[in-house]
Design goal:
single chain, about 300 residues, mainly alpha, Farnesyl Diphosphate Synthase, two-stranded antiparallel ribbon, about 70% helix
Length: about 300
C-alpha cells in the first residue's frame, strides 16, 4: 500500500527546504545583511502550503517530484516577497509573522523592502536556471507566475484590499479581491503542474483550474475566520488585526455563520471538480481539507 500524501509531508518539506536553500544566496555573501534578511523572510517558519499544492498536483498527474522543485521554490519565494511587503508600515503595519518579528522589525524597513525586491526576481531566475525543462515550458511557467503576482493577480488584490478598508463590499467584489490577492498564487501552484505535465485534455485542465480557483478563495475566507476565532500563538500573527484595521473581510461584512458556510461551499465545489481523477487526486483532496481545517 502506497503512503498517503500526509505521510509524505516530511519528504516534500525537506525537498522544498533544500530547493530554497539552493536558490537563496548564502548569508555570508555580500551584501550579507540583505542576504540574511532574504533568508529570514523565506526560511523562518511557514506551512509551505503553496509548494505542497504544487507537489500534490504533481502526484495527481504522476509527475516526478524533481520536476516540481523549481516551480515550488519559485512560488514560495514570491509568497515570501509578498509577506514582507504586506507587513510594512505603509501596508498592513504588522509586527509579527509566523510567530516571529516581521522582517522590517528584525532588520529595518529599508532592508525589508530591498529583501522583498530581491526575492521576486530570484523566483523567476529559479525557473530560468532549472534543468529538465524546455524553453517553452520555462516561458509558460514564468508567464503563469508573473501574471499571478502582478497587477492582475496578487499585487492588484493587495491594492484593492488597501483601498477597501472601512468600506462595504458586495460578496462578488470581495471574492474578486480574494481571487487576486490570495487565490491567484494558489491557482498558479496547481496550474504549474499542468504546464509541466504537457498537453492535458480540456476536461482535466478545466477541472484542476476550478479546483485551484475555489481553493484560493476558500483559503482567504478561512484566514478571515481565523483572524476572529484563532489565537495569536496558533496562527502566528496578531489575532484581531483585521478588525482593528477595518479590513473588508467576510466576517466583518457578512458574519461568521455566512463565512463558514461559504468556505464549506467552496471546499465542496473544489472537491467535486476532482471526481474524474479518482484516487489520483487524493493528495489535492488532503490539501483542501488541510486548508479548511487548519486552526480547528
Amino acid at each position: 500500500m502506497s503512503a498517503s500524501f500526509e505521510q509524505k509531508i516530511p519528504f516534500y518539506s525537506a525537498r522544498i527546504t533544500q530547493a530554497l536553500e539552493s536558490a537563496l544566496p548564502a548569508a555570508a555573501a555580500t551584501p550579507n545583511r540583505l542576504h540574511e534578511a532574504m533568508r529570514y523572510a523565506t526560511l523562518k517558519g511557514g506551512k509551505r502550503i503553496r509548494p505542497l499544492i504544487v507537489y500534490a498536483a504533481g502526484e495527481c498527474l504522476s509527475l516526478d517530484p524533481a520536476l516540481l522543485d523549481a516551480p515550488a521554490a519559485a512560488i514560495e519565494l514570491i509568497h515570501a516577497f509578498s509577506l514582507v511587503h504586506d507587513d510594512l508600515p505603509a501596508m498592513d503595519d504588522d509586527d509579527l509573522r509566523r510567530g516571529l518579528p516581521t522582517v522590517h522589525k528584525q532588520f529595518d524597513e529599508a532592508t525589508a523592502i530591498l529583501a522583498a525586491d530581491a526575492l521576486q526576481p530570484l523566483a523567476f531566475a529559479t525557473i530560468v536556471n532549472a534543468s529538465g525543462f524546455s524553453a517553452d515550458t520555462k516561458q509558460a511557467l514564468v508567464g503563469l507566475i508573473a501574471n499571478a503576482c502582478g497587477s492582475f493577480g496578487m499585487t492588484g488584490g493587495q491594492s484593492i484590499d488597501l483601498e477597501s478598508e472601512g468600506r462595504k463590499l458586495t460578496v462578488a467584489a470581495l471574492e474578486e479581491m480574494y481571487a487576486l490577492k490570495t487565490g491567484a498564487l494558489i491557482h498558479a501552484s496547481v496550474i504549474s503542474a499542468c504546464i509541466i505535465a504537457g498537453h492535458l485534455g480540456h476536461e482535466q485542465h478545466d477541472a484542476l483550474d476550478q479546483f485551484g480557483r475555489c481553493l484560493g478563495v476558500a483559503f482567504q475566507i478561512k484566514d478571515d475566520i481565523l483572524d476572529v476565532e484563532g489565537e495569536t500563538e496558533v496562527i502566528g500573527k496578531p489575532a484581531g488585526s483585521d478588525v482593528k484595521k477595518q479590513k473588508a473581510t467576510y466576517p466583518s461584512l457578512f458574519g461568521l455563520q455566512q463565512s463558514h458556510a461559504r468556505c464549506d461551499e467552496l471546499f465542496d465545489k473544489a472537491l467535486s471538480s476532482l471526481t474524474d481523477f479518482g484516487a489520483d487526486a487524493e493528495p489535492l483532496r488532503w490539501i483542501a481539507r488541510y486548508v479548511i481545517d487548519r486552526g480547528n
